Amino acid sequence: MIYAIVDLALNRLAFASGWTILWPLNGVSIAILLMRPRSDWPAILIGIGAGAGIGECMDGNSIRMELLLRPISLSEVTISALLLPHFSTLGDWLRKPHIFKRFLGALVLGPSISGVLAAIVFHVSAHQGYLSAFDDWAPSDALGIAVTMPLALSLRTPEMRDLFRPVQLLKTVSVLALAFLVAGLVFGVSRYPLLFLLYPALFLVESLLAFSGSAVAVLGVALIAVYLTDGGRGPFGVWPKDLPVSRDVAIQIYLGFQLLALFPASILLLERRRMAAELRDTNEQLMMLASLDGLTGIPNRRSLDERFAQEWGRAVRLQTPLGLVMIDIDHFKQFNDLYGHHAGDECLRAVASVLYGEVRRTHDHVARFGGEEFALLLPHTDVDGAFHMAEILRQAIVSLAIDHRGCANGVVTVSIGCAAMTPKLGDNRLSLLQVADAALYDAKRSGRNRVHIGETARQIVR
């Protein structure tokens, strides 16, 4: 029923005679087939044929004629669909091997075969010339496939939905409006030769809105061309009858060349965008890997230095405190001697996992500082907050209960030094690191498995 309504509506439009230039329905039919498994094709084709036949009969065609023409039209749809790959995603479909050749074959072979058959039917039933009947059928179907099939395939893709999201909508509408304005000038003005403007406009749409955007633009441009030309406007509107090429064929050739030139450009731009995206992803992965410690998987010293510089600058600007906690595994050399380096690596991973897991705030930053030493950067944290966090970490490591005969408690423990300050312009961030590091060594000299606060940060030692 949908096909009957659409077919009837197309035939009853104000520029219905323009459908001899471009017939859009078969391109939609091919797209539907490409999106469905071939086992569903017979039922779909029967539905399409019945709907289109009813629509044509309601428009005045005889049932006898439609019984002859519907199988011919369906043969065109089937042949063209068989030449094209199954559609899953737009990117995959456009990257199929020889897609341009297959697309070109679908535009030529299906409409040509059906055009020959239709020409025979029209010649026998209406005594219309073979060439005239072929021209009325095949070129308009081929152009319709070229215009509507890419759009129909794009309609259900994320790329098409992205074009009309609020954040992208203004750009999409502006670019499409520019393309339609150019089309109006090209096909509405006959006094000046403006045909050269169309391809740059379409290529601009492709470069800014990608394949889905250009599919919308192509349909709009084609409808503008058909409407203005059928109304006697533009370079094709007033066509001398003594020329060997008719008006319809001339505009079909012009639009066809524009679209066939745009399709490979779309594929090339799509591949370029894909490679650029892959390069960005690769660079991001490399940057991420460069900022992670290979053994423990948590951020490394380089990452800490970068974050330290950022948070120090922010603390200077906002005049907020910045805390730093330095953590060292007690008697780690003895642990390696007693249990082996493999066990030492596992111990480092376990400690790093606990430290990383205890960090709750998104802007806090824990990292492996080097060897068996770790660091925790605490923005917006004073010395009491840093001490509180350090004590939580110390107890969490003890709770791991990793056997260590070289420690007094019999398990792996850590010594921690912490400091905090509100830096001023001109202060050196290394001063905070030196205070926290000195506090760490005070904790180690005082018996290990404890937390010390740097003396210059606060004049007490715990």
TrEMBL record:
Catalytic activity: 2 GTP = 3',3'-c-di-GMP + 2 diphosphate
Enzyme's top EC category: transferase
InterPro entries: Diguanylate_Cyclase (IPR050469), GGDEF_dom (IPR000160), MASE1 (IPR007895), Nucleotide_cyclase (IPR029787), Rev_trsase/Diguanyl_cyclase (IPR043128)
Enzyme nomenclature, EC number: 2.7.7.65
UniProt GO BP: cell adhesion involved in single-species biofilm formation; negative regulation of bacterial-type flagellum-dependent cell motility
Keyword Transport carried by entry: no
Topology with respect to the bilayer: Multi-pass membrane protein
Any one GO CC term of the record: plasma membrane
Main location: membrane
Pfam families xrefs: GGDEF, MASE1
Tagged with keyword Transmembrane: yes
GO MF term (any one): diguanylate cyclase activity
Domain GGDEF: 320-456
Domain of life: Bacteria
Alphabetical UniProt keywords: Cell membrane, Membrane, Transmembrane, Transmembrane helix
SUPFAM superfamilies given in the database record: Nucleotide cyclase
Residue spans crossing the bilayer: 13-35, 103-124, 169-189, 196-229, 249-270
PANTHER family: DIGUANYLATE CYCLASE DGCM-RELATED, REGULATORY COMPONENTS OF SENSORY TRANSDUCTION SYSTEM
Protein name (database record): diguanylate cyclase
